[in-house]
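Each field is set out as follows.
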Amino acid sequence: MDGGDRSDDPGCRGLRFPWDAPPAEGEATEVAEGVLWARLPLPMALDHVNVFFLRDGDGWAMVDTGFDTKRTRAILEGLMAGPLDGLPIVRVLVTHHHPDHVGLAGWLMERGAELLTTRTAWLMARMLTLDEQARPTPETLEFCRRYGMDAAVLAARAEERPFNFADIVAPLPVGFTRIKAGDRIDLGGRTWDVHTGDGHAAEHAVLYEVGGDLVLGGDQLLPGISPNLGLYPTEPGGDPVGDWMASCARLAPLAREDHLVLPGHKTPYTGLPARMRSLRENHVHALDRLHAHLAEAPRTGGECFAPLFKRPVNEKTYGLAFFEAAAHLNRLWLTGRASREDRGDGVWLWRAT
């Protein structure tokens, strides 16, 4: 899932967008020879996910899949009957394990498609679809309390069924085709070098066309919005912001002005070198603002939204904002720019150092 709307995200400055409008629901736009772009709906503020189809022998290779819902299945079946000329989807490349990108992969595998993804993406998606919970775990509630989640929000969440992958991700059959950094693969009649990023999702695949100008960017290379970098109870000592910055440094030298990036959301674009700089600098500036915020007074994690986000955080965006604030606080702490101490009730207070 993606956060966006960080306070100083430079958005689309320096980027170029070859298309005036995205394809309508159920339609597809050709973005390169043998490459079609379509959108599938999401029931949230970011109301779509991009999917791409690459002509692959006697069928199509699909990049990412959308949620598994009756509506998205129907839209995809319509796309297969129409723009895909009735030909089957024979391979599915999943860039990362988030449900808007892997949701229909299992359904497509049941219809004969081969799944290509990284090992971490496969393991995460497979594990999360099997880990169905009626209530949040005690570890989850304790994590949220330690980072200062609003007491009323925490109490309500404790009694609610949490989000479960199984709700919108089709069961994944055992077995997949692994891709990893350093691989060179053939997909859709083109050859690709596989690279990976981290921070938004572990071992997120990013593919660069060999001898061409296409980049399959997923959520690692979004235009105009920043992907959510959340710290979660599954890895409470993690450093997603640091992982993100390291990924940006690793991927930046690969960027060319003439690259056409096919991203997981928003619109395909060129001008990738400038976007790589902004994707990193956005979080550098966010950390600086958060540090200044903590220098004014000690704060809990739930009191650290203002320096990080443009718009007020509401009920729908509270969760993403909370876990992203936790990630930025952890980054300051791990790099020695902040300290934390127990407030006396098990909640951490953070101070600038």
